[in-house]
């Protein structure tokens, strides 16, 4: 066609295979009325091009354009019916909904424009342009006879599309008003006025189709639906019952279970068709084999969009746009999902939240998202192939499934057998798809036999029925193969008559690929690439094939039904049509060839991540592993684990890193193996301490193994492995200082300020717990002098979950109080609070508040303590910090008990201590036990108080938290006096207390124990022994602040 000579269409002919209806009824009708959409395209100025180009160059240009146009139409489920010169007319299938057909036609038109630009660029013709017209109308289909296999189609859409094309501007798609009305929800349009169209009596509203709004779901965007639905009415009735309940307001879950190829997706298509008029939304999520280790992989694939220009990373703005498009507008929900998806620009404060808190937030976000989705009407939400679901998605789907009953939502999950039991808590309806029986198989064979192809013989029908085992996908592939290779089909099938169904399927797939020449190798590369690939990626996998061969192979594989087009416009992106087809082609490829292809993919993607931006780091690592590149695979898995951990996907992070450690065992070189193991342990350690607890066996074992490896590495490397040393110290169950001394000794010669700072961080924490307060203060002073030279705040999350300076200032404050310098202690604690707030790091702020509360507790300053309790409460409202909430309750109970509410304060403390024990944070428990013993004494529960003190003393002695031991013994002596116990026991407790206080230079306890000793009148010898020491301590007390603000009332003996 040219712009001066638009094509005339006296009639258009199409095959019955294209326009065929559903089931057998369609074939019985001689004439049918259908709504069809027609597309007309024409190159602009082709006559002028002919005048300036050599005839062969012109022919080559037109051929390339027509090939690209056919591909664009086919990728959107259409078929070019008339091709004349530099243009053509296409129809879009009658067997799908008219709205979907109109939307797909517009996509095809936009793709034709993109294809024209690409062809022009490839041929060096910047002046190559195309126009597209699209129209929709009622059409009369006259069924053809059996000899020709052709139908005659009559309707105004063809002429209207041709006329609209003629008035379109270059590189635009112009559509009729009927087409626009059908596709208005999926595309954006611009009004182009009312036009009088030649041959039409009424003026026509003309629209310019600008862009696509939303995806047509995969059943149509990915290609034609070819397999019929054979006798699944019982299953559909179960789903209909669940849907009716959801529409009425009581949602539910349906789990469809069946082997690969059994027809799960075909059932979903029918659900999609039958719910169309009642539902407000249909949401489809697809799990894939490569997404098992990628958190929220199904959701990520749905929202990722075009990744070019951002190194394949998703932006928080893109997530927000997608969620708003689906009526989820709550900023908190969007922030949570942006963070979980690892989007660039996500709220950094969410990194401060621990894994359990993030899980709670994610569950909340799922429930409220579902509420927003259902606000405009009932919805169908489908998650396919949950046997490949990642752990985070599994958690959220379980939450969503349990929440569905409260909303107008039908949740459908498909899975292979025995993989969906974890959804049992949502009380789902189960559908187990069985293979078709003999008669159903014969019906399916008859229905799937391509229109216009000679019918198969009864003998071959028997063979096919036996070979397929009633699996619809097997039936479809064998029918297609037999019609493509009728001459050899009988012999080939006879040879496979005794083999398994899966083996037959593999043979059929291979036989079909044999006839496609170079496309066979492209199919193998596609199976290696995974569930998504483009021509550029295949070029990297197959450098021996030129672009034209690969492009033609993609066309052939698409036409043969092996591949589907995933991206409706722009640069084509493909996938294998069915996971079982991909698995079959992959497994049939020789192992060495698979390894070579994986190696090429890994190398190409490592050079340019934008080449396959949809691949996550864990998927890239899997390609390296399958390529046999173990060291590269381990390195990538460590990066993937780090990424998952950074967005609180702890389950995936642990799974990935434990897999990396397992791979390390296969590395032959011991030196390389050790280095790789340590790199994985550094990341896995904090995950285990967060998930299992710092005193858990898995965390301790990992760090103990890690230190053994680290200590045999060269000294020059030890700075690199310092987190292993830190974790080894941190997970020690006995705080005796031995491990801290090892850390200092092993790292003494390491010239790294941050390492030296964190080594002293270990030391001052141990020294404080052991009551070595002068050494603690010295270690803090030495460490903080290194703070500015190291990474400081940057490592807050890595070492103890808080900033080192905050920790140092706080511990110095507590130790200063112990050595009799209360004013300096208050000042240092004020610095710790101020610095914590400057960091903005929740863990550091919590650390400062908790230690500040402890200082006020030491000083018995109830007013200041209540102020800090309020800060603790406010912090726990914003962050999930159960240990902090328990501490706040303990402090509050103690304050209440000292304000006259002894019984209620005591109960509050008991509850808080019960919670505190669940979080494996024993360091401050001796203090809390002493506080509770004080209240128990006031309620005359002396025996319980003594038992509590005895337990606290034993725990402090065994665990190394000795800083409060002197006070525990002093309080024990007070209670023994109160009971009138033997003087020897009382004196023993007092002697133990004052000796420990003197040894630790714990001035407050030295003074208070001496005063108890004096008031008791017991052991003048003991009093005399410590009199001078106590007097010196009193005279050395720092002025400016009280050591004890509200002294405890004396116990009456």
Describe the structure.
- Among the domains are: 12-214, Nucleotide cyclase, GGDEF domain (Alpha-Beta Plaits); 220-432, P-loop containing nucleotide triphosphate hydrolases (Rossmann fold, 3-Layer(aba) Sandwich), CATH 3.40.50; 438-515; 923-1053, Serine Threonine Protein Phosphatase 5, Tetratricopeptide repeat (Alpha Horseshoe).
- Helices cover 58% and strands 10% of the residues.
- It is elongated and about 120 Å long.
- Strands 1, 2, 3, 4, 5, 6, 7, 8 and 9 form a nine-stranded mixed sheet that branches.
- Mean pLDDT is 84; it is low at 1-29, 213-226 and 306-311.
- By secondary structure, the protein is of the alpha/beta class.
- The chain contains 46 helices and 17 strands.
């Amino acid at each position: 066609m040219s712009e001066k000579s638009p094509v005339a269409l006296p009639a258009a002919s199409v095959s019955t295979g294209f326009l065929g209806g559903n089931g057998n009824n369609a074939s019985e009708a001689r004439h049918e009325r259908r709504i069809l959409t027609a597309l007309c395209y024409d190159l602009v100025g082709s006559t002028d091009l002919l005048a300036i180009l050599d005839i062969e160059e012109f022919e080559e240009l037109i051929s390339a354009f027509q090939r690209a146009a056919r591909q664009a139409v086919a990728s959107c489920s259409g078929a070019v019916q008339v091709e004349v010169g530099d243009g053509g007319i296409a129809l879009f299938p009658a067997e799908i909904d008219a709205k979907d057909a109109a939307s797909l036609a517009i996509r095809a038109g936009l793709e034709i424009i993109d294809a024209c630009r690409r062809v022009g660029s490839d041929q060096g013709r910047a002046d190559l342009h195309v126009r597209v017209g699209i129209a929709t109308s009622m059409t009369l289909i006259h069924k053809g006879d059996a000899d020709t296999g052709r139908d005659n189609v009559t309707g105004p859409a063809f002429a209207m599309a041709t006329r609209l094309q003629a008035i379109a501007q270059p590189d635009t798609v112009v559509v009729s008003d009927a087409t626009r009305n059908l596709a208005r929800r999926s595309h954006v349009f611009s009004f182009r006025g009312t036009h009088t169209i030649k041959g039409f009596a009424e003026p026509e509203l003309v629209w310019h189709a600008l862009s696509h709004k939303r995806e047509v779901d995969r059943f149509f965007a990915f290609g034609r639906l070819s397999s019929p639905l054979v006798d699944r009415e019982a299953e559909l009735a179960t789903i209909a019952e669940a849907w009716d309940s959801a529409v009425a307001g009581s949602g539910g879950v349906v789990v469809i279970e069946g082997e690969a190829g059994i027809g799960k997706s075909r059932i979903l298509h029918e659900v999609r068709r039958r719910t169309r008029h009642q539902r407000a939304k249909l949401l489809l999520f697809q799990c894939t084999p490569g997404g098992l280790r990628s958190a929220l992989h199904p959701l990520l694939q749905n929202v990722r969009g075009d990744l070019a220009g951002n190194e394949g990373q998703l932006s928080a703005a893109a997530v927000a746009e997608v969620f708003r498009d689906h009526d989820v507008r709550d900023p908190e929900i969007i922030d949570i999902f942006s963070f979980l998806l690892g989007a660039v620009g996500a709220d950094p404060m969410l990194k401060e939240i621990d894994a359990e808190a993030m899980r709670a937030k994610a569950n909340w976000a799922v429930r409220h998202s579902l509420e927003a989705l259902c606000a405009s009407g009932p919805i169908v939400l489908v998650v396919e192939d949950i046997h490949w679901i990642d752990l985070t998605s599994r958690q959220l789907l379980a939450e969503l499934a349990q929440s569905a009953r409260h909303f107008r939502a039908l949740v459908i999950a498909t899975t292979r057998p025995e993989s969906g039991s974890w959804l049992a808590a949502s009380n789902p309806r189960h559908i187990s798809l069985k293979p078709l029986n003999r008669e159903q198989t014969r019906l399916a064979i008859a229905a799937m036999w391509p229109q216009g192809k000679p019918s198969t013989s009864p003998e071959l029908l028997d063979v096919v029925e036996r070979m397929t085992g009633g699996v619809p996908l097997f039936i479809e592939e064998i029918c297609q193969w037999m019609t493509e290779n009728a001459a050899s089909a009988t012999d080939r099938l006879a040879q496979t008559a005794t083999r398994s169904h899966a083996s037959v399927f593999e043979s059929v797939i291979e036989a079909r690929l044999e006839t496609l020449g170079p496309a066979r190798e492209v199919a193998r590369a596609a199976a290696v690439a995974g569930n998504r690939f483009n021509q550029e990626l295949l070029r990297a996998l197959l450098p021996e094939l030129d672009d034209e061969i690969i492009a033609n192979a993609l066309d052939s594989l698409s036409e043969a039904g092996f591949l589907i087009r995933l991206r409706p416009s722009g640069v084509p992106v493909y996938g294998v049509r069915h996971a079982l087809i991909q698995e079959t082609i992959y497994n049939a490829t020789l192992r060495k060839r698979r390894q070579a292809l994986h190696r090429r993919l890994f190398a190409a993607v490592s050079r340019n991540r934008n080449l396959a931006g949809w691949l996550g780091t864990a998927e890239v690592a899997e390609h390296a592993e399958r390529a046999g590149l173990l060291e590269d695979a381990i390195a990538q898995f460590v990066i993937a684990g780090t990424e998952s951990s950074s967005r609180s996907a702890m389950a995936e992070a642990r799974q990935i890193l434990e897999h990396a450690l397992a791979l390390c065992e296969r590395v032959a070189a011991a030196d390389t193996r050790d280095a790789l193991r340590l790199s994985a342990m550094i990341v896995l350690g904090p995950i285990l301490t967060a998930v299992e607890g710092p005193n858990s066996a898995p965390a301790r074992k990992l760090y103990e193994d890690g230190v053994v490896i680290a200590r045999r590495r060269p000294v020059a490397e030890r700075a690199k492995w310092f987190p292993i040393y830190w974790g080894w110290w941190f997970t020690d169950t006995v705080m005796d200082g031995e491990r801290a001394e090892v850390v200092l000794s092993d790292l003494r010669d390491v010239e790294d300020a941050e390492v030296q700072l964190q080594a002293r961080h270990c030391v001052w924490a141990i020294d404080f717990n052991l009551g070595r307060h002068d050494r603690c203060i010295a270690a803090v002073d030495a460490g903080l002098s290194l703070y500015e030279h190291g990474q400081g705040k940057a490592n807050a999350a890595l070492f103890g979950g808080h900033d080192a300076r905050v920790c140092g200032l706080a511990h110095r404050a507590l130790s200063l109080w112990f050595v009799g310098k209360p004013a300096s202690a208050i000042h240092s604690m004020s610095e710790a609070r101020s610095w914590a707030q400057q960091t903005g790091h929740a863990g550091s702020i919590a650390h400062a508040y908790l230690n500040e509360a402890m200082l006020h507790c030491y000083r018995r300053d109830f007013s200041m303590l209540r102020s800090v309790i309020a800060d603790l409460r406010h912090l726990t409202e914003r962050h999930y910090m159960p240990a902090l909430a328990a501490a706040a309750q303990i402090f509050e109970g103690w304050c209440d008990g000292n304000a006259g509410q002894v019984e209620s304060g005591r109960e509050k403390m008991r509850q808080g201590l019960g919670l505190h024990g669940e979080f494996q944070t024993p360091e401050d428990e001796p203090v809390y036990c002493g506080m509770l013993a004080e209240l128990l004494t006031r309620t005359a529960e002396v025996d319980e108080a003594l038992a509590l003190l005895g337990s606290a003393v034993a725990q402090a002695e065994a665990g190394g938290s000795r800083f409060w031991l002197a006070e525990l013994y002093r309080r024990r002596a007070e209670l023994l006096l109160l009971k009138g116990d033997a003087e020897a026991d009382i004196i023993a407790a007092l002697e133990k207390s004052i000796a420990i206080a003197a040894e630790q230079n714990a001035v407050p306890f030295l003074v208070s124990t001496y005063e108890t000793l004096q008031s008791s009148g017991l052991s003048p010898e003991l009093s005399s022994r410590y009199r001078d020491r106590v007097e010196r301590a009193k005279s050395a007390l720092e002025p400016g602040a009280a050591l004890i603000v509200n002294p405890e009332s004396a116990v009456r003996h």
